[in-house]
């Protein structure tokens, strides 16, 4: 009985270790796995890609990325796998489709709408008509001023000498 248990258990243990070991990747595949990992967010850390995180979950996710790259899956398939498990939150650069387009485009639409409203308001607003300058009232009669004007008119060299 012991012999059969060892005969079955030892190969099962070796197969388990082989399955848990990360697959051997070519340098191009390793670079691709790293590139994919830089766009996947660590579920525990805040805004940190799994390639920079030291969490066990991030290491497991990076190992899964390597396995999928070794299996020949496309980038879209790899991202789809993680989005299915963790949601769009796991992507550091989510696709700009669906509700994401609305979130990316809403500020631009608001800016354009505000500019259009401002343009319309400024265009419809007519310039204020120029007000005619107020007509100066004739100066009120000032006897002192009248006397000064008469006296200065009589001064020599004025050219307008008057006889009283």
TrEMBL record:
Iron-sulfur is among the record's keywords: no
Residues of the CcmH/CycL/Ccl2/NrfF N-terminal domain: 22-129
Region described as Disordered: spans on this chain: 129-164
TM spans (from-to): 101-122
Signal peptide: 1-20
UniProt xrefs under InterPro entries: C-type_cytochrome_biogenesis, CcmH/CycL/Ccl2/NrfF_N, CcmH/CycL/NrfF/Ccl2_sf
The entry's keywords: Cytochrome c-type biogenesis, Heme, Iron, Membrane, Metal-binding, Signal, Transmembrane, Transmembrane helix
Keyword DNA-binding tagged: no
Function: Possible subunit of a heme lyase.
Family designation: Belongs to the CcmH/CycL/Ccl2/NrfF family.
Name listed for the protein in its UniProt record: Cytochrome c-type biogenesis protein
